[in-house]
Amino acid sequence: MSTNKIPETWEAKGGISVEFxxxxxxxxxxxxxxxxxxxxxxxxxxxxxxxxxxxxxxxGEWWYAVEDRRGLLYIESGKNLKISE
Length: 85
Fold this sequence. Notes:
Layout: E1 9-11, E2 17-19, E3 37-41, E4 46-56, E5 62-67, E6 73-77, E7 82-83
Antiparallel strand pairs: 1-2, 3-4, 3-7, 4-5, 5-6
């Protein structure tokens, strides 16, 4: 069970309200969690780092923010990441 609850709505500056459509956050079955070491291997580069955030796009697909040892952030779809060994 998660101890960090996702708010139902979040009020941003200027009165913009963002809603979180998650119905049952305790039963999310995500392939990666915050703190996991992951890697992305592309055709001409590789990126390795630690997952620092997970977010759901409007399409429903989960994407992840990954930070490397230099502090560089990389945002990638979960389908393109693998757990680092």
